[in-house]
Amino acid sequence: MSSLLAPAPNDPVATPPARRPGSVRRTSTMLMSWPGGLGTELHLNGRARDLLTPVAGEPVVLAATTLDAVTGQTHDIQRIAAEPGVEELQRLIGRRARGNLRKAIAEELPQEVEAGTPLYLLLDDLAGAALISGFAFFVWADEIPGFHERMAAAPPVMIGICSGFQEGSSALNPDGTLKGVSKNTGRPGPLVDPADPLGWHELPDHPEIAMRRARRIDVWEENGEIRIDAMFRDSCWNPAGEEEVVHEYDILGTADPETGTLASVTAVPRVLPYPECPGAAPNATWMEGTPLRTMRRQVLERLRDTNCCTHLNDGLRALAEVPVLAAMLPDNPAR
Predict the structure, then answer these.
(1) Is 331 part of any domain?
(2) Is the pLDDT of residue 152 over 80?
(3) What's the mean pLDDT in 251-276?
(4) What is the pLDDT of residues 316-333, one digit of tens each?
(5) What pLDDT is recorded for position 149?
(6) Among 11, 193, 212, 289, whose CB has the most other CB atoms within 10 angstroms?
(7) What is the DSSP string of 14-72?
């Protein structure tokens, strides 16, 4: 089966699209690093911003936030803080940065969830970022004594969790364990277009061994529709200091401005690890007709197991805040 598939996609976007007059852009990054080295605390440093680009005049920052969290070896949140400060964040200390964290966020910070704030996007990314962060060490494996032996001693069983790890996948051994980490990583251009330094929020410096999750969501109105142009990228840096992209999607869509319903959506895989991974992309259309504000829940319910790609799901779920961004558009009566 696998021999008939096209190679895994490897075409990262060189530069983000130009900002459109009369649009709102939300950008976010989550930097993952281990100041103490392999096996020590994971530091998660998030930045997010909403930027209005008016038809005339200068861009306006509508909202900006930072989030800093530290998790222990059992993925428990040990420290967490945001700027501007939010006192309720302290209620997340002791919670594990895994899937159940999203339920805790909804319980402890309902105001952020309801408002669809940049801080909520960063909080929702904590679990996914913690899960994928360790890929950075595989890129540095030859530089870390004993790393290959440590990984070979207990290869993970991955079968059935997503499109890339379906039965018979080229990524898996017959017993369902992972054969090895994919070498299909892309070399992107800079995340910030040099011709448009305002196009992204300020990016912090990164340590040598680190990963970064980056998102961009552009929203504007055209011909009576809300238009959506979004991207999702996970990347890290190799020992030569070069950025390597391991997951990247473009997501293009339209929505009804009256009902806030997703009218159309297309997911374009740009970089994915294995040939089977892009098989989930066409299933993004299953979400058409969904009220956007319910996407975080509905995506997880509809795109599951080998019908999903966990990174596609992450990209689609973030469309839940498109109505929030659309309400900020300059001609929107809600603004």
Answers:
(1) no
(2) no
(3) 97
(4) 999 999 999 999 998 764
(5) 77
(6) 212
(7) SSPPPPPTTEEEEEEEEEEE-TT-TTSPEEEEEEEEEEEE-SSS--EEEEEEEEEEEE-
Count the domains in the chain: 1
Task: Give 232-271 as a DSSP string.
Answer: EEEEEE-TTS-EEEEEEEEEEEEE-TTT-BEEEEEEEEEE
94 inside domain: yes
pLDDT in tens, 204-259: 999 999 999 999 999 999 999 999 999 999 999 999 999 999 999 999 999 999 99
| 3-state DSSP assignment of residue 228 | strand
Q: Is position 13 within any domain?
A: yes
Distance CA 80, CA 46 (A): 11
Domain that holds residue 19: 2-326
The four Cα atoms 72, 68, 136, 235 give a dihedral, to 10 degrees, of 150
The residue type found at 140 is W
**333 located within any domain:** no
The Cα 226–Cα 86 span in angstroms is 31
